[in-house]
Amino acid sequence: MNPNLDRLQPYPFEKLRALFDGIAPPAGLKPIRLSIGEPQHPTPGFIRQTLADNLGGLATYPTTLGSDALRGAIARWLERRYGLPWIDPAVQVVPVNGSREALFAFAQCVVDGSRPGARVASPNPFYQIYEGAALLAGAEPVFLNTLPQDGFAYDFDAVPDATWRDVQLVYVCSPGNPTGHVLGLDEWKRLFELSDLHGFVIAADECYSEIYFDDGARPIGGLEAAWRLGRTDFRNVVMFSSLSKRSNVPGMRSGFVAGDARILAEFLRYRTYHGCAMNPAVQAASVAAWNDEEHVAENRRLYREKFARIVPMLKPWLATDVPDAGFYLWAGVPQGLPDTDFARRLQAEYNVTVLPGSYLAREAHGINPGAGFVRIALVADTHECVEAAERLIAFCQKL
């Protein structure tokens, strides 16, 4: 067996199950699950219908590169969304079965684990796939703590040059999971400078990009930042996006990677052997989803409504605020109470599930930057989220 498998930590939800072992929540309170970032808004009817109308495609093997129609729809969406003048769907877009599998596979393609000291950098706290991908590619993780006193921004200059020299891949997540931080143009500029200096590839995880609260301040994407800063070839930059959060179709497993054509050519070659072509019916439904913005605007409206209701309720009790974007509240628990104790007691006494922040981070530079926080996913409907907030307040009042 690959010895690096033994280096993988239990996934956060495995830890959560162990934390809750032996708990019997009050039978009179229905469970409210705010721990997992699974969109629960209804899937738009036109997407479901398009999927049903194209089941004949199941009789054929799909190509790894996907259909011209799908790549064209993604390219045109990128141009509309980020103001890019031209994305070549033939060489700058590759469809993938959701961003999760692609984020993992990308490291296996990009990282040369045979090089002594190979490293992969990521934010901390972070989406756990980054760490697993690094370890199984034969690299050592490098963690960039994102802290509340810095507005959860990346401090790239905190990493010594001697470490950067060994970094082959940098994951960034914008909007961030779990903090909601959106990289600004200055952060992108510094990251591009470091990439030019040290030669690493940037993997920009942008699957929350369409859940934002101000139409006049949409999150900047990695390709948009590259273009605005004169990197019109997107050198060493690849972005990852998905329909899961944007269109409420996590079960379709549909996303894409886009950017540096040179890197994508190698990633496509890897994927041809990996065997992960997208279902033809899913491709057709994805074309319909990428071509429509009305349902996305309605989705944003629902999240905005929830945050407008929930944040004022919780702010007097938990250290939290509306994030830059995304559907998570990254909430500081009352001082002196471990986040694991907070989550366990909340589950036991009020049947509300949240995720301890320490499960989403690793100790780096002497601290675990997720400790003292919980991640609250406002994915349920407004009524259920309000009920959860009321239970959270009742719990905090008892502490």
Keywords for this entry:
Aspartate Aminotransferase, domain 1; transferase; Aspartate Aminotransferase, domain 2; succinyldiaminopimelate transaminase activity; 14% strand; LL-DAP_aminotransferase; 2 domains; Aminotransferase_I/II_large; alpha/beta; 399 residues
What is this structure's SSE topology?
Elements: H1 12-19, E1 32-33, H2 45-53, H3 68-82, E2 93-96, H4 99-110, E3 119-124, H5 129-136, E4 140-145, H6 161-164, E5 167-173, H7 185-198, E6 201-205, H8 222-228, E7 237-242, H9 243-247, E8 255-259, H10 261-274, H11 280-290, H12 294-314, E9 328-332, H13 339-350, E10 352-353, E11 355-356, E12 373-377, H14 382-398
Parallel strand pairs: 1-10, 3-4, 3-5, 5-6, 6-7
Antiparallel strand pairs: 2-8, 7-8, 9-12, 11-12
Helix pairs in contact: 2-11, 3-11, 4-5, 4-10, 12-14
Give a verbal description of the structure.
This protein has 399 residues and is α/β, with parallel strands linked by helices. The protein has 2 domains: 144 residues, Aspartate Aminotransferase, domain 1 (Alpha-Beta Complex), CATH 3.90.1150.10; 234 residues, Type I PLP-dependent aspartate aminotransferase-like (Major domain) (Aspartate Aminotransferase, domain 2), CATH 3.40.640. It is 39% helix and 14% strand. It contains 14 helices and 12 strands. The protein has a 7-stranded mixed sheet with strand order 2-8-7-6-5-3-4, with helices on both faces. Strands 9-12-11 form a 3-stranded antiparallel sheet. Strand 5, helix 7 and strand 6 form a beta-alpha-beta unit. It is globular and about 60 Å long. The model has no long low-confidence stretch (mean pLDDT 97). It holds the Pfam family Aminotran_1_2. It is an enzyme of class 2 (transferase). It comes from Thauera sinica. This is Succinyldiaminopimelate transaminase.
